[in-house]
Write a structure and sequence with these properties.
Blueprint: H1 5-12, H2 14-21, H3 24-28, H4 36-67, H5 79-89, H6 109-136, H7 156-171, H8 176-203
Length: about 200
């Protein structure tokens, strides 16, 4: 019996996942000395990333759902949440850098599944960040931390896992390599973007 794709994803993306968690901007957000300015820099960087990503991710996900309908899974756009958090904290920047994101979202359903695995899975880490933001900066979903509180009104991670294990895995069982490639590329692309954003922020 072959190993379930979720287990393969966890095992084969672990190095890229751990490397992203160690990226200084993300690591700093869990510091007890986190400042609102530092948090605002992370929000700005994530907004720039999702503005670029979602222009392709949203239509690609809609097309995947047309091919493989699921009663529960829906992708909840992140850009509006991040933009609102930036406005609330007064850190909206007209000079956002938008990275060239090398993710092939057209055509390959398997690759897209890997991308969604990372994006939806990140809501689980968001739970810990949301709790930390409440404790350190007094922020909640209404005061600048809606992005990291997305799990409160959108259980998309559970819905995605169910969709993957009950339908998608069967259709893409011969293309697991592309699923894993999509996930690893998403981790590494976000990592590279955050590194570039740090250089941009420090150079201003």
């Amino acid at each position: 019996m072959s190993q379930p794709v979720l287990e393969q994803l966890r095992e084969q993306t672990r190095p890229a996942h751990l490397a992203l968690e160690a990226q200084p901007l993300l690591k700093r957000v869990l510091s007890s000395r986190l400042t609102e300015i530092e948090y605002g820099q992370l929000l700005q960087s994530m907004l720039a990333f999702y503005q670029t990503l979602e222009s392709k991710l949203i239509p690609a996900t809609a097309a995947l759902l047309e091919r493989h309908p699921d009663p529960d899974y829906r992708y909840l756009p992140r850009v509006a949440l991040l933009a609102n958090d930036c406005r609330v904290l007064g850190c909206a920047s007209p000079g956002l850098i938008h990275p060239p994101i090398e993710l092939r979202l057209e055509g390959s359903g398997a690759y897209l599944i890997g991308v969604l695995y990372v994006i939806e899975g990140s809501t689980q880490g968001g739970r810990f960040i949301a709790k930390h933001l409440a404790q350190t900066l007094g922020l909640d979903e209404n005061s600048g931390a809606s992005f990291f509180n997305i799990h409160q009104w959108n259980n998309s991670w559970a819905a995605f896992r169910s969709w993957l294990s009950t339908d998608l895995e069967r259709h893409y069982q011969d293309d697991t390599r592309s699923i894993i490639e999509g996930a690893n590329m998403t981790f590494s692309t976000l990592h590279t973007h955050l590194d570039q954003w740090q250089l941009f922020a420090h150079g201003r």
